[in-house]
Each structure stands twice: as C-alpha cells, then as structure tokens.
C-alpha cells in the first residue's frame, strides 16, 4: 500500500518518506529506516501505531525543539500563575502585609523561585513525570489557624500609626524599617518552622516506603474519587472568578475549546530554513498552544474593552473585575530584581501546636499528590508509576517543602493539578517541557516586574480557564472507573458514598467553624484540616470500604487495572522512564541499594521474590 501525500503529512513524513524535521525527531526514532512503501499485512499495525501517536504530540521521553520547549513551558507558567500567586495574596492579610506591596512582591518572587527549584527536582530525580510543583492550598488552612491565635493577631491600625509617627519623629529611621518588617517577619518565621518540621514526616513516608506499602491496597475505587474530588472541590474557586463577568469567562472557555478541540486537526502552514532552502511545513499550532491562545485572546478582549471604558470603573458594579488596569499599582511597586535566599526573613521559630497542625496539611497534600501522579502518567503517555517512583516522588515533595520553609514562601509545595489537566488538552506530555518551565520560573522569579505584569490578567479569564481545567481533572478521575464493574451494587455504593462524603463533610465543617472542641487545640487543628480536605475524605472512604467490603479482584477492577498497566508498560514505554538518570550502573553494582524502596533497583528485588 502506498501512502498519499496527505497521509504522509499527517504521519509527520516528507513527500520523500523521511521524517519531517519540523515535527522533531522523537527518542528512539531512526529517520533513515522509515520508508513509504508498506506491505498490506502490516497495515493494521501501522494504523494502531498512528492512532496512539495521534493522541500525544510529544510523550514523556520525547524532546521537542528548544523553541517549542520555551513556548510550551511558558504556557505551563501561565496556567500555574493564578494558583501560585493566590497563596501569598491569601496570606497577605493574616501576615499583616495587606498594604505592603513591597513585601507582597518579595513573597511572590520567592514562591515562584522555589516552585521552579522544586519542579526541576521532581522532574529530574523525583517521579520524573512532567508534573509542576507549586504552592499548595492544603497548607493554607493550618497556616490560617496558626495565625488566628491571639499572639499572632495583627496590631490595631491606630497603634501602628502611632508607632510610625513616634519613629518618624525620632532620628532612627533604620529602626522604623526594622520594626515595621518585624511585625510580619516574626509571623513568617513561625510558619517556616512549622512547615520545616512537618515536612520531615513526608520525607519519612517516602524514603521508608510506607507510601508504597499502602499503594498495594489502592485500586480504582480509591483513586477515582480522589482525583475526581480534586477537580470538583475547586468549583467554588472557579465560580468566584468566573462570576466577575460570565461573558468573559464564557469567551475564554469557547476559545480554549475552539483551539483544543475544533481546530485540533487543523495544521497551520509555517516556514523553516533548512539545507539552504526555505521550506513550508504543516504544524499543529492550535493543539499545542490551545490554553495559551485561549487565555491571551480573552485577555486582549478585556484590554480593549478596558481602554474603551466598556467595563464599569466602580468596584461595586458587576463586570469591574474584568478590567485589566485594576492591579497596575502592583506592577509599578514591584522591584526590577529580587534574588531570594534561605533565611531572608530570619531564623525559623518552632512550636508544638504549629507543627502538629501543619502535619495535617502534609498528610492531605501527600494523598492529593498520589492521585496526581496516576493522572499525570495517564495523560503523558507513561505507564502507571511503579512503587519506587511514588515513594521517591513523595520524599522529594517533602524536600521541596523544606526548601520552601528555608526560603520563606509561607507555604509548601505540591503537584499542580491544573498543569496536569493541560497535558490532556495540549497533548504534550514531554518531561523536558516541564523542566523548561522550572527554569523559567526561577529566572522570571528574579525579574519582579515581569511576573507582576501577569497579575493584570482579569479574574473572569482565569475563571474560564479553571472551568475547563478542573473539569478535565474530574473527568480523568472518572476514567479510572473503566476497569470497575459498574453493574455491581457494591462498587456503586463505595463510589457514591466516598464521592458524596468528600463534598458534604468539608462543606459542613466550613459552615460550622469551631464545632470541634476536644480541649486540645493541636488535635482540633488536625481534625479540622483533614475533614475539610475533599480529596482526603473521598480517598480515605474509598480505600477503607474497597478493602473491607468483600469483592473479587475482577469486580473491584484490580485485575483489569493491573493487566492494563502491564499492557501499557509494553506498548507505551518501559518503566525505565522512571529510573534516576546516570545512576543505573551504580545501583545495580551494590546489593545494598536493592533494599531501598525509593530506588529503581528495589523493583528487581520485588520481582524476584514474588
């Protein structure tokens, strides 16, 4: 069978039958071996391969061209921007820096800088999945609980003004700066100490293999509600931002859907210069940059409508939040350069109550990340992560939280669900792209003005993006049910109860603050944090019920899930994609490494004993 010219272009071939250099040669491709003439008996195998490749433009181990890595990495930077910047903005008031734009800009630079470091660490030696690390909302609740204690209440405005006047009348101007900074830095140091110690728990869970041990008992009925609730639990945040102007939010959704779905098969003619000739080639531009194009298109519309004064200028009126000139002060007040460094706010302080409360956030973040790993592997064309990769990923997240505590972000780090969802929309699951994102976050975290520009993205635009992204996450969770017997009343009961409880209990606890009073404040904090975390509740009930209610492996979906995992291991790529680079020789040489549950050599021992 001879392919037509159109079929060659769709397969990424030139008219002569070789790989089109504009599409980038993937790992393992042998360009000279590809030919156009194919015998009839192999047609079905070819079509099967083409269908799989059509799902992902670039899979986990592929290396897109450098310019694509920068553009795609920048797209991930934009997607994570709203979630990461929300953390310091939420903490601004309890840290007593609500009106201190300089302190806020320094916090923003710090959290982006550390997020970039942690992303590089996770993609290089952690799970090695294309997963972005950033600030986590699981730490927000215990942080707010700590700062709500009487000793950390912000000073009254009148007292602050009086102190300021007294200091201005004195000749010690440096003392004024020191005391005004000490008001919020002392609070930050308390949060740093709590995160620093609590993160040791996450490291122990990963390096000891306790996380991997529990994974043996986790099936689709535990994973599905966990991932599903990651998306569903964020509907309030998406609704708040979209509600600022539903028209703009709808425009953002339509543009993302237009580029990612309706125009995904449309290739844009582009020009390249190669071999001393100008060549025209077709490129899937809309599929790769659908989220970026959608956001930028809606952002441009908001900018034009702001210039022509279509949106109201009063904050109390509907549609004001769609203006692009609301946060211009933040751009003006941001420093051009700010290089974060460990201990920039002083030496962290420690207290038992703060540490115990923060440990609840660590447990919730760990549960959420395990679900994220499975979702990321599925969307990036990788096999399900083996036990050693998950152990190492959780341990590296613990190290990332320690780095965040040392630098003083006021938060920890965790896997970012919205960026995982972007993998499913853009069909780009390359690890190298996320490593480029990490480098961009470090560099742009130093340039304060550049990051501040993106604060001007209107809330309705971010809300529209959230509607698509969080819906994708929820759908990925539901997709795990394909292995489960949904005609079984047992499975329906477990799925329904765990999902519904994950929505009901957090809502009730939020509606009844202070209802938990055991007499021990630290225990109260742990209970409240755990039971206000949607995915923890859903995953916990799914895990307990699935392992206690009688059912066969086939009914529970365990058998199909494992068979599918083995098939994916053969068809997609070898599990060696989870190995630590440049270390295989050393790990195989010394026998002691076979007993460490966070190293790739550990799997050899398990296979040999099973």
Automatic annotation (TrEMBL):
It is a multi-pass membrane protein. Its main location: membrane. One of its GO terms (cellular component) is plasma membrane. Pfam families: Xan_ur_permease (PF00860). One of its GO terms (molecular function) is transmembrane transporter activity. It is found in: Membrane. Keywords: Membrane, Transmembrane, Transmembrane helix, Transport. InterPro entries: NCS2, Xan_ur_permease. The chain crosses the membrane at residues 65-95, 107-125, 194-215, 246-264, 284-308, 432-455, 461-480, 492-511, 526-545. It comes from the Eukaryota. The keyword Membrane applies. PANTHER family: XANTHINE-URACIL / VITAMIN C PERMEASE FAMILY MEMBER. Belongs to the nucleobase:cation symporter-2 (NCS2) (TC 2.A.40) family. This is Solute carrier family 23 member 2. It comes from Cottoperca gobio. The gene is LOC115009761.
């Amino acid at each position: 069978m001879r392919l037509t010219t159109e079929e060659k272009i769709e397969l990424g071939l030139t008219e002569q039958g070789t790989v089109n250099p504009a599409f980038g040669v993937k790992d393992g491709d042998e360009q000279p071996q590809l030919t156009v003439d194919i015998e009839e008996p192999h047609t079905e195998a070819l079509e099967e391969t083409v269908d799989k490749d059509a799902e992902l433009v670039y899979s986990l181990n592929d290396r897109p061209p450098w310019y694509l890595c920068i553009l795609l990495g920048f797209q991930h930077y934009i997607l994570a921007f709203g979630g990461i910047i929300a953390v310091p903005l939420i903490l601004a008031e309890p840290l007593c820096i609500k009106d201190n734009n300089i302190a806020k800009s320094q916090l923003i630079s710090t959290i982006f800088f550390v997020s970039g470091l942690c992303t590089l660490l996770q993609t290089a030696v952690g799970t090695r999945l294309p997963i972005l690390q950033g600030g986590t909302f699981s730490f927000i609740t215990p942080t707010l609980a700590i700062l709500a204690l009487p000793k950390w209440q912000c000073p009254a405005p009148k007292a602050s003004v009086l102190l300021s006047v007294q200091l201005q009348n004195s000749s010690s101007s440096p003392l004024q700066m020191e005391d005004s900074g000490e008001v919020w830095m002392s609070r930050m140091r308390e949060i740093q100490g709590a995160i620093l110690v609590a993160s040791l728990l996450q490291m122990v869970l990963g390096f000891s293999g306790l996380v991997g041990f529990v994974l043996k008992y986790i099936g689709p009925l535990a994973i599905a509600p966990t991932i599903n609730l990651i998306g569903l639990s964020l509907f309030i945040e998406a609704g708040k931002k979209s509600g600022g102007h539903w028209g703009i939010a709808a425009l953002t959704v339509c543009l993302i859907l237009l580029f990612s779905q309706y125009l995904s098969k449309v290739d844009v003619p582009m020009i390249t210069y190669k071999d001393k000739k100008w060549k025209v080639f077709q490129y899937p531009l809309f599929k790769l940059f659908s989220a970026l194009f959608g956001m930028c298109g809606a952002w441009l519309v908001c900018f034009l409508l702001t210039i022509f004064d279509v949106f109201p200028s009063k904050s109390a009126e509907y549609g004001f939040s769609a203006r692009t000139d609301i946060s211009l002060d933040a751009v003006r007040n941001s420093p051009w350069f700010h290089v974060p460094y460990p201990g920039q706010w002083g030496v962290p302080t420690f207290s038992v109550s703060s540490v115990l409360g923060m440990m609840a956030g660590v447990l919730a973040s760990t549960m959420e990340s395990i679900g994220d790993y499975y979702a990321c592997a599925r969307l990036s064309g990788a096999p399900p992560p083996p036990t050693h990769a998950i152990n190492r990923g959780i341990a590296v997240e613990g190290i990332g939280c320690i780095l965040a505590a040392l630098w003083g972000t006021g938060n920890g780090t965790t896997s970012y669900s919205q960026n995982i969802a972007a993998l499913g929309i853009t069909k780009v699951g390359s690890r190298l792209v996320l490593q480029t994102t990490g480098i961009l976050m470090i560099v742009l975290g130093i340039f304060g003005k550049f990051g501040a520009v993106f604060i001007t993205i209107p809330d309705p635009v971010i809300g529209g993006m959230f509607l698509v992204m969080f819906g994708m996450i929820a759908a990925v969770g539901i997709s795990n049910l394909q292995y489960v017997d949904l005609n079984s009343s047992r499975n329906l009961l477990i799925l329904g109860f765990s999902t519904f409880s994950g929505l009901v209990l957090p809502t009730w606890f939020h509606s009844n603050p202070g209802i938990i009073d055991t007499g021990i404040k630290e225990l109260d904090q742990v209970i409240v944090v755990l039971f206000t975390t949607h995915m923890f509740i859903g995953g916990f009930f799914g895990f307990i019920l699935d392992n206690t209610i009688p059912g066969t492996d086939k009914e529970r979906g365990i058998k199909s899930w494992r068979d599918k995992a083995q098939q994916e291991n053969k068809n997609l790529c070898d599990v060696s994609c989870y190995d630590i680079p440049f270390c295989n020789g050393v790990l195989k040489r010394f026998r002691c490494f076979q007993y460490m549950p966070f190293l790739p050599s550990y799997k050899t021992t398990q296979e040999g004993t099973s």
